[in-house]
């Protein structure tokens, strides 16, 4: 399809398909993220007594099936077209979503979550189905608009807690939660019907592909796995945090599930819709420059997020007797030995710290110090004997609004990074965009599955909610290292004698790609 052919009826159909594609993806993504809210709500209201690790598994299991089936669903889309595959996937996901309303054990939640996780495969369908309707010069914008359907995570973060609270009368009638997955199932069913009857059939010409092994040929290239690692961070991290932030806010900041959902949406909503901007920036400045900025900014923000709310009490400066004698008076403010008074520092500044803490105005770590008597009236003491021990209390609030601001920055970077990674793929694999994009999408989806489970294990092992940020900081540093290593390797190939490179056909093709 050329730019001149993209007009009139064809253009109207393409825009209609893109609109329905994006709407359907938003609905499916919202359904895909349901467990992040639902499981947290049920545990917080005492319906089930699951550990943090078990919660991590239940939150992550829909993401697993959504990731693992992306590649085969993408292949089916190339073969049969997006219209029919998209519709079938939504119908199949609606059934286990409805059955979730009857779950009453850990393994039932596990299995039904695995089933409705199919909703997450619609990304692979939508990418292929959108691409086939638009000429190459419009594909970046079209795919960016489609990718904004990630905002479905924010829809669930904001609305699902309110829906659950309304259905259960604030948790008083907890069994009424079962209506929520039924409502989601109806939404999927309705979307499937609307999608099928308002879109058009079209599929890519894949007649040049003669075997599955030919289709999977790009797997041999290390670049594919490097791009997959990047996507594991920016997409997998986004999916994981879109769910994990809700129990994080509830436990670390004592917010209600509904309020936590609103705060989590500050992360997920902008991150979802900014993907289109990420595509434009990647076209304008190149994927490498964009991803370098994404990684450095993410690393800085996650390092700042590592420090948790904390109260540390440590020995401070005490009071010692200036001469030997008998203690004649002991109060909170003074100790008298013989006729010599030793003034004590009283904990008045601690009261001010607590007042500011309750007001939520503390930003920097605060310190308060006081002294507590260790002697009693009538005790005989020697010179330089300890009369009152010193106590220093350090409090760090990890202010919720500063925390949310840093999380917002991480979300923006992940949103831009998601587009940046997919900009790499046509540059290096122009003939294999579908399969490479599918494989990278699988690895990104696996990130969304692995991370919540890993966070649960880290939380159980350390008791620190901020261990998730430690993980992201280390993982981001690894991405930066691999990117810099690849750049140095690419530069060394360019500088190598051209004749030496020509001796190996594979290396020659790699060199040509590095010049592209």
What does it look like?
- This protein is an alpha+beta fold.
- It folds into two domains: 382 residues, Up-down Bundle (Growth Hormone, Chain: A), CATH 1.20.1250.20; 87 residues, OB fold (Dihydrolipoamide Acetyltransferase, E2P).
- The chain is 68% helix and 9% strand.
- The chain contains 21 helices and seven strands.
- The strands form two sheets. The protein has a four-stranded antiparallel sheet with strand order 4-3-2-6, with no helix packed on it. A three-stranded antiparallel sheet has the order 1-7-5.
- Helix 1 packs across helix 9 and helix 3 runs antiparallel to helix 12.
- The longest helix is centred in the middle third of the chain and has 31 residues.
- 44% of the residues are buried.
In short:
The chain has 516 residues and is of the alpha+beta class.
């Amino acid at each position: 399809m050329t730019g001149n052919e993209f007009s009139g009826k064809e253009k109207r159909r393409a825009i209609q398909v893109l609109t329905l594609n994006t709407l359907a993806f938003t609905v499916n993504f919202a359904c895909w993220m349901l467990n992040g809210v639902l499981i947290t709500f049920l545990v917080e209201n005492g319906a089930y007594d699951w550990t943090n690790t078990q919660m991590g598994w239940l939150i992550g299991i829909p993401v697993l099936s959504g990731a693992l089936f992306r590649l085969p669903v993408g292949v089916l889309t190339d073969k049969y077209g997006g219209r029919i595959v998209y519709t079938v996937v939504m119908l199949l996901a609606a059934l286990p979503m409805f059955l979730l309303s009857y779950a009453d054990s850990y393994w039932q939640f596990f299995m039904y979550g695995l089933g409705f996780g199919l909703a997450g495969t619609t990304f692979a369908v939508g990418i292929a189905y959108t691409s086939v309707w638009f000429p190459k010069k419009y594909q970046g914008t079209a795919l960016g608009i489609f990718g904004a359907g990630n905002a479905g995570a924010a829809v669930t973060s904001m609305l699902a807690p309110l829906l659950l609270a309304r259905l259960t009368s604030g948790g008083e009638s907890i069994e009424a939660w079962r209506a929520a997955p039924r409502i989601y199932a109806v939404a999927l069913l309705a979307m499937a019907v609307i999608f099928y009857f308002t879109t058009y059939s079209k599929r890519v010409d894949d007649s040049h592909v003669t075997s599955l092994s030919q289709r999977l040929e790009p797997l041999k290239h290390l670049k594919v796995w490097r791009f997959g690692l990047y996507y594991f961070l920016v997409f997998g991290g986004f999916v994981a945090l879109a769910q994990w932030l809700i129990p994080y806010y509830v436990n670390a900041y004592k917010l209600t599930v509904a309020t936590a959902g609103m705060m989590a949406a500050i992360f997920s909503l902008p991150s979802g819709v900014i993907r289109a901007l990420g595509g434009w920036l990647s076209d304008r400045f190149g994927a490498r420059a964009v991803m370098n900025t994404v990684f450095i900014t993410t690393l800085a923000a996650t390092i700042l997020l590592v420090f948790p709310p904390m109260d540390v009490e440590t020995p401070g400066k005490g009071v010692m007797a200036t001469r030997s004698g008998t203690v004649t008076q002991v109060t909170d403010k003074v100790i008298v030995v013989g006729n010599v008074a030793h003034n004590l520092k009283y904990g008045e500044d601690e009261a001010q710290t607590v007042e500011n803490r309750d007001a939520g105005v503390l930003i920097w770590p605060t310190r308060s110090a006081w002294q507590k008597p260790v002697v009693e009236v009538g005790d005989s003491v020697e010179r330089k004997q300890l009369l009152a021990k010193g106590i220093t209390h350090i409090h760090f609030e990890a202010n919720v609004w500063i925390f949310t601001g840093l999380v917002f920055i991480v979300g923006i970077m992940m949103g831009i990074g998601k587009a940046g990674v997919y900009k790499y793929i046509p540059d290096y694999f122009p003939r294999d965009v579908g399969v490479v994009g599918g494989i990278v999408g699988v690895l990104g989806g696996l990130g969304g599955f692995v991370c919540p489970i890993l966070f649960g294990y880290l939380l159980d092992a350390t008791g620190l909610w901020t261990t998730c940020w430690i993980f992201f900081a280390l993982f981001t540093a690894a991405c930066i290292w691999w990117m810099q290593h690849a750049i140095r390797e690419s530069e060394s190939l360019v500088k190598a004698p051209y004749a030496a490179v020509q001796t190996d056909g594979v290396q020659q093709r790699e060199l040509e790609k590095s010049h592209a």
